[in-house]
Every structure is written in C-alpha cells, then in structure tokens.
Design goal:
about 30% helix; about 0% strand; mainly alpha; binds iron/sulfur cluster
C-alpha cells in the first residue's frame, strides 16, 4: 500500500450520512442510482454499476462530512 489516505468505511453510520447528500443529489435522483448497486456510499463501495450511463447534473459530496473527514476530492464517486 503506497497510499496513506484513509479509506472510507462501509458502515451504517456512513451510509446514513451519505443518504443526506447522495440522497438529495440531482445526479442520484435523475439516474435512479438507488436502484442499482451499490445504491449509495460510492466513495467507500465504488462507482455505480450503471456508471457508464450516468448523466452528471451536480454532486453534493463536497458538502458531506465524510468528504471533509477523509480529505476526498472532486466528488462524482458514483460515476468515476
Ligand atoms: S462523499 Fe459522497 S458518496 Fe461519500 S458518503 Fe458523502 S455523499 Fe456519499
Ligand atoms: S457521488 Fe456525488 S454525484 Fe454521485 S450521487 Fe453522490 S452526491 Fe450525487
């Protein structure tokens, strides 16, 4: 492991936080990302299974406390 960046944990607490941001995000709603795995918490679980078809219309990740806590950058974890 070369990186020292902390990995976002897949746990219930983080999922609840994610729901506040991804859940309200226009990209999430427009592309119905909830219906395809991993459904949410993309920064921990990886991009959506329908990532190739996702039309990006904004990302709320930069407002999310997990984004700040783990020093994430850019966002759009559902699509990239
Ligand atoms: S940074 Fe984005 S994908 Fe990760 S928990 Fe927050 S809203 Fe969800
Ligand atoms: S990762 Fe960003 S763009 Fe994708 S659903 Fe979550 S907030 Fe929206």
């Amino acid at each position: 492991m070369k990186t020292t960046v902390a990995t976002v944990e897949d746990n219930a607490t983080n999922l609840e936080i994610c729901k506040k941001y991804c859940g309200a995000c226009p990209t999430f709603k427009t592309n119905k990302l909830r219906e395809s795995p991993p459904h949410a918490l993309f920064c921990a679980l990886g991009k959506s299974s329908i990532a190739e078809n996702v039309k990006s219309t904004g990302c709320y990740c930069p407002a999310c406390e997990i984004f700040t806590k783990y020093h994430l950058t850019i966002g759009y974890f559902c699509a990239k």
